[in-house]
Protein 1
Amino acid sequence: MSKTQFKAESKRLLEMMINSIYSKKEVFLRELISNASDAIDKIYYKALTDDSLSFEKDSYYINVETDHENRFLKITDTGIGMTKEELETNLGTIAKSGSLAFKTENEIKDGHDIIGQFGVGFYAAFMVADVVTVISKALGSDQAYKWESTGADGYTIEPVEKDAIGTEIILKIKENTEEESYDEYLEEYQLKSIIKKYSDFIRYPIKMEVTSRRLKEGSENDWEDYKEEQTINSMVPIWRKNKNELTEEDYEKFYQEKHYGFDKPIKHVHISVDGSIRYNAILYIPEKIPFDYYSKEFEKGLELYSNGVLIMNKCADLLPDHFSFVKGMVDSEDLSLNISREILQHDRQLKLIAKNISKKIKSELQSLLRNDREKYEEFYKSFGRQLKFGVYNDYGMHKEELQDLLMFYSSKEKKLITLDEYVSRMPEDQKYIYYASGESYERIEKLPQTELVSEKGYEILYFTDDIDEFAIRMLVNYKEKEFKSVASGDLGIESEDDKNETEAVANEHKELFDYMKNTLAGKVKDVKVSKRLKSHPVCLSTDGELTIEMEKILAMMPDNPNMKAEKILEINANHEVFKSLTDAFENDKDKVDLYTNLLYNQALLIEGLPIQDPVEFTNNICKIMK
Ligand code: ADP
Ligand code: MG
C-alpha cells in the first residue's frame, strides 16, 4: 500500500506555533542571538579541522542596532552565514534545524556550545515583527542572498550585495495595538535588559550603540548626548571560572548583579559536577529575610540555565521547601528542553540535580554551625522557622534530614543550643528532653510549671515560635530521648517518696478536690495536688495530645477548629493558700467557691489565656480585700 503524506496548512501551523510556544514575547531576541552565537561557533568548529581557516576570537561578534523612526531592529553576526539553499531549507522549513544537522555531520559529540536543536526559534521573530528580512553571505561563497517573509504568506529569496561573511536579521517591529505595546523592542534600555537577562553568557560580545551623557568640552554644566559602542553581555559566566581565581567580592558582586537580594549573603557555595549529569551551580545563603518571605507571594526557586542561556527565572523544582531561602543558579548542558526552551521535557536530570543540591545545602549549613557559630545563629534567626516548618511538613518526611540543624533557647545557657548539645550533657538519671512554651523567654522563665524540672538541675528548652511544639511533636524523640513538656501530666522526675507523699495528701483532701472540680465543671478536667510546684500556689497542666500553647495557636487559625486542651488545675499543697482552702472547707463553702475561682483565673493569666469574666475576677479580689 502506498502511504499518503499528511498535509498541513503551513500558514496556519506557523501562526499557531508562533503564538502558542512562548509565554513571553521578549524571548525572540534570545532566540536570534542564540542563532547568531551558533553561527559563530560553527566557524570555530570548522577552523578546528580546516587548516585554511583561522579563528581569531576578537573578530567575531554580534551587533544589535535600532532605527527608531522606521521601527527596524537589526541583529548582525559575523558567523558562518547561509547559502541560498540553506536559507531555503533552514528558514523555509519549519522544525528544520541546520544547527542540529551541523552537529551530526561534523560529529561534534561535545558540541554542547551549539544551542539550536529544534528549528523553530527563528520564527519567534514573527511575534514582534510584521516583516523579517535575512541578508546572509555564507563562508566560502561570493554571492549574498536576501530572504524575506511576512510570516503567513511564505517568503522570497533574491541575490543582494553584501561584503562581509555573516548574517543580518532585520525586523520591522509591529505597530502598537490596544492590548500590546511593541515599542520596548526599539528602546535601548529595554533591549539591554532583555539581553542581560537571557543572553548574558553568550560567549561572543553582543555590541550595541548606546547613548551616554557627558559634559561638553570646556564646560562645567553643559551636557551633551553622545553615542558609544558597548558590550552588553558578561560573556564568561562566573560559574565556569575556576574557583581558585574567584574572590569573595566576585561572588558578592554576582549576588547583587543578579538581584538575588539586597543583603550580603552569609555564605556562598560553588558546585561543579562532572559526573553522570554535568552541572555548575552557585548557591547563596542570604543573611536577611526577604520582606515577603513568609507570605504567599514569595516564590522559591533557582535560576536555571542551559548552556549559559537562561531558561527559567525561578525553577521551583530545584529547591525543597525547607531550603526555599536559598538563592542562586544552576547551569547544565544535560537538560532535555522542550521546544519553547521554557520547560524541561523529562525532569529526571532535574530531580538528580535537586537532590544533589539539597544534600549540599545541608552539609554547608552543618559546617557553618560547626565552624562559625555566630554566623549560623544569624542565619537561624532569619530562617530557623523555615527549618522547623520543614520538620513538621509532609508528615515529617524530612525530619531526619533537618533535626541536627535545629536550635532552641536553653534555660541554662541563656542562648540557642542544638538538640545534640542538649542530649550530650543530660545527667544520667534524666529521661526526657524538657521544654516549656510561652510568648517570650522572660515569660517562660517565670512559669510555675518549670519549677520542679529546674530544681532538679535539668535544662529546659524554651519554645517561643508557634511552630515549635508542632515540629517537636513530629520529631517525637531525638537520639532516643523523648520530648516532654514541663506542663505535661507525668514529668518522670518524682521519687517514690514524693509520689507517696502527694498520694497521701490527695487521699486526705479528696473531698476538697472533688468539691473544687465540681465548682470548675466544664472548665477543667480535674483538680489535683501538684507534684511540680515549689513556690507558686497553682498552675495548669494538660492531659492528652493538645497542649495549652497549641490551643492558643489553633484558636488563631482562620478556620478555628475550636479545639481545647484538657486542662488540669494543680494546687501546691505546701503553699499557705492551701491552708486557707482547707480551713474554709471546714466552715464556709462560699469562700471555697470564691478561692477556687480566683485560683483558676490566676492559672489562666499565668498561661496567657483569656479570663472569661474579668469583671467578676476583679470583684472577687475586692471581696477578699475587704
Ligand atoms: P535552531 O536554532 O533550533 O536550529 P532556528 O529556527 O532558530 O532553529 O534556526 C533554524 C536554522 O536556521 C538554524 O539551525 C541555522 O541553521 C539557521 N540559522 C538561523 N539563524 C542563523 C544565523 N544568524 N546564521 C546562520 N544560520 C542561521
Ligand atoms: Mg535557534
Protein 2
Amino acid sequence: MKTWNGPALPQTPVLSPVLQLHDTASGTRHEVLGRDGLVRLYVCGITPYDATHMGHAATYLTFDLVGRAVRASGLAVRFAQNVTDVDDPLFERADRDGIDWRDLGAREVQLFRDDMTALRVIPPDAYVGVEESMPRHAQRVAELLDNGAAYTLPVPDEEAAEPGVRDTYLDLARQPSFGQVSGWSREQMLDVFAERGGDPDRPGKRDVLDPLLWRGARTGEPSWDGATAGPGRPGWHLECTTIALDELDAGFDVQGGGDDLIFPHHEMSAVQAAALPGRPAFAQTYVHQAMVAYDGHKMSKSLGNLVRVSDLRAEGIDPMAVRLVLLGQHYRTPWEWTSSLLEAAQARLVAWQEALPGSADAELVRTLGARLADDLDTPAAVAAVDAWVAAHPAGADDGSGHLVTDSIDALLGVQLRG
Ligand code: 5CA
Ligand code: ZN
C-alpha cells in the first residue's frame, strides 16, 4: 500500500546511547542493537473502519519514537506495518452504513495517512494490506497443514458458501512455546479470548484457545482462493505472522502495539511463526503501549468514546500540541485524555516556539537522547526542554546555530521552526 509522506529528519551530530526498551515477554529491559547496523521494527496497524483516535495516536507515536531513538543511536531502521483491511468489523460497519467495505477501508486508511502526516510520524518502509498479500497468507496455511501443525473442521452447512469448505486451526498442543510472549496463565487467557476475537465455543476445536488460521468461505462474506485450505480468508493473527516474517525476516528486533494486543494477538502471531517449517523466531522484544482512556473507559471504536485526531485537526488544533500531550505521558502508564491536557500542551508549544532557541547547546541534546534511550522517558525529555526554555527567555538566541530545535525535531518529532 501507499504510505504517507515522511517528515524531514534533521541530522543531529550528537549520538545518543543505545535504546533500552522494556520487553513484555521477559519482563526485563532489552538493548535494541539490531544486526549489521539495522534494527527491524514491526508495528501492528489499524483496522480501518473508523478514524484514528488518541489511543491509536499514542501507540503510533510511541513506535515513531522507537525509530527516532534508534536512528539517534547511529543505527538504521527497517519498519513494517500491516493494515487489517479484511476483517469482520469492516464488513459490519460497511453493512450498517450501506457502503462497500473496500471503500470504507480505503477512506479510513487515507484519513490515517493524513493524521500520521500531520503528527509527523515516520512512515513504514513496507505498509501491507491483507487483500494485497492474500496468496502469501494462503501459502502459510498450506505449510502449517503440510507439517501437521494445523487441523481443519467442516464449516456448518447452513453457513458454508459452498459444499466442503473448512476452517483451519493451529494445534496449540504441539507448540511448546505457547504462552511465552504474554506469560499469562490459562485462566487469564480464557478470560479475554472471546472478547478479543477468539471463538472458544466453536465445537470440535482440540483446544478452545486454538487460533483460527483460515476461515472457510461463508455465504455473504468475501472470500479468496486459499489453495489447500480452500476458499476463505486468513485469521487475524496470521496476517501479522506472515507480513512480519516476509518483510523483516525471522528474529526481527521489535514487535509493537497497544497492550490489548499482548494476548491473544501477539502471543498467537509468535506461536504461529514457531509452528512453521524451520521454526522461524518471531520478535526479540515485545513492546506495548498502555491504554489511553476517555470518559472513564478505554478509548475504542467499538465503545465510540473517541477523540479523533482528524476532528482536532478540523478544529484548527496544532498537531504539534497533540504530539506534546502524548509526549507528556510515559508509554507504559495508562492515562486519560482530557481537554486540560490539551490546553497545557498548547501553552507549552507556544512557550517553546517563543523561546525559539537558536542555540547549539549540546548538553541539552545529550539529555534528550539519554532520556529517550531510557525506555522512552518522554515526560523527562519534555521536562528537560521546559527547564531549558525557562532558563532562556523569549528571544534569546546565542547565534550558535539550530542544534537544539533540530534535535527537538529529530528526537521528539516536534517541529518548532516553520
Ligand atoms: N489491526 C489490529 C492490529 S493487527 C488492531 O488492533 N487495530 S486497531 O485499529 O484496533 O488498533 C490499532 C492499534 O492501536 C493497536 O496497536 C491497538 O493496540 C492500539 N490501540 C487501540 N486502542 C487504544 C487505546 N485506547 N490506547 C492505546 N492504544 C490503543
Ligand atoms: Zn497485528
